[in-house]
Amino acid sequence: MLCHIHIKDFAIIENLDLELRSGMTVITGETGAGKSIIIDALDVALGDRADSKLVRQGAERSEINITFDVKHIPEAREWLAAKELSNDDELILRRLFTAEGRSRNYINGNPATLQQIRELGRLLIHTHGQHEHQALFRRDAQRRLLDNFANHNKLLDAVAEIYQHWQRTNTELEQLRNLGSDSGAQLELLIYQANELDQLALAEGELEQLHSEHQQLANADRLIHACNGALDLLSENTELNAQTALQNAAQTLNEIAELDPHISSAGEMINNAIIHCEEASSEIRHYLAQAGLDPERLHTVEQRLSQIHDIARKHRVKAEELCAHQTTLQQQLDTLKNSDERVQELLAQEQALRDDYRKAAKKLHNSRIKAAKKLNQLTTDSMQMLGMEGGKIAIEINHQDNKEPTNHGLDAIEFLVAANPGQSLQPLAKVASGGELSRISLAIQVITAQLEATPTLVFDEVDVGIGGSTAEVVGKLLRQLGDTAQVLCITHLPQVAAQGHHHLMIDKFVENDLTRSRLTFLDNEQRINEIARMLGGVKITQQTLAHAEEMLAL
Hints:
This protein is α/β, with parallel strands linked by helices and 554 residues long. Helix content is 56%, strand content 18%. It starts with a strand and ends with a helix.
């Protein structure tokens, strides 16, 4: 459940703290007061693009924090646990974005990607927008709506997985066929290139070793001079060296150690330093014994490096990539030599995948048929309640077995509707008027919302295009949803507003030449006044107030 919203410097909202409640909460206000800004802020918090223009004028950045109680949202708890982002039953999503376009995202105080915010958001809130009815014109949207209602994600995933495997198989087949059309010249080129790299015989790690050796040989004179200087300072200078100085210091301290035992620890440290000095000198002598100047070896190394880099330029790869390139060439050569066999393997595999796909697509089709029957009946019943007596809807599903595979099956799905008694079923886009379409969409949205796992449902002016007794029915349907889920409903209809368990009113005001918004929970008397405003407009009479009070009492 959504528990708290904090919005700072977003659009015309300067600072908003809102504690939300269970049940159905309606949000009303004058046109332009910013009702939909709350939904916009929620959408941004849940992963929508954070447009820098949404930063309030005069502010440097916007901040949105939303808090959820996920105690009864197992999918969200599992997601958080898998990402090691759990915080008991509380979840806090936080988004910051600046006027310059930079943004930061957090889940329970931990930095998060926008994709993670979106994934989690889909488990928490579902927004039903006022323009969703327009999407019903699209066949792909109709298919997705039916699939969401059917809740057969495993069947959809099975079809999509086989389809992707089938696509990869066909891509490899096409590549082999294209390769085969010029296989003679291609084979000759690959053999030449592979032989060239075989002759180079570059060993794994050889290039790094050659570079290291070249650096040592090219700087041998400098290295020897520096090491001799260090050795002189450590132990071989006859007049003064570190080892002799340390030995003298150790002897001096040993002579006075009997006078005060506390000085003995310093003597031990100096003795350790003498040992380190001797070991360092020995290590340098050993290095000098092997680091002699060798112009002939330097020439050999330089020639080998030149040969490697010349071949790399010829093959248009970096020298460091030659070994991997050789492996790739050999794989291509093996593929070309065995292309006929591989083509036959892939053809058999492609046919087997087609068979598996048809079986999976048929199971998906059967599930869609079953779900469509149920959705048809529920939607038709709701249409009667929403003032479309005698209207009905039917979802047509044609299984096209000879169609090329797609990632969503072989079904052509279309919503057919008869808006009035006696009319024949026709495609939704052809027969439904704007008002009829909005009611059909609303019926479907309310039905599908009842089956959703997301605990918070947002309805953003979905009641556009309806009124009168139909609006009252819509309000009652949304209130019923509020008995089992948290419902936030932005509305301009008093019949819907009167059905809310709770009522929020948003208004805007001007302060210091800046427009601001504020949101307030209304008590019963304030609700009467607000619903009267929605009923009667500017002039509110005693009769209007009495009507508003009566609506709330029902």
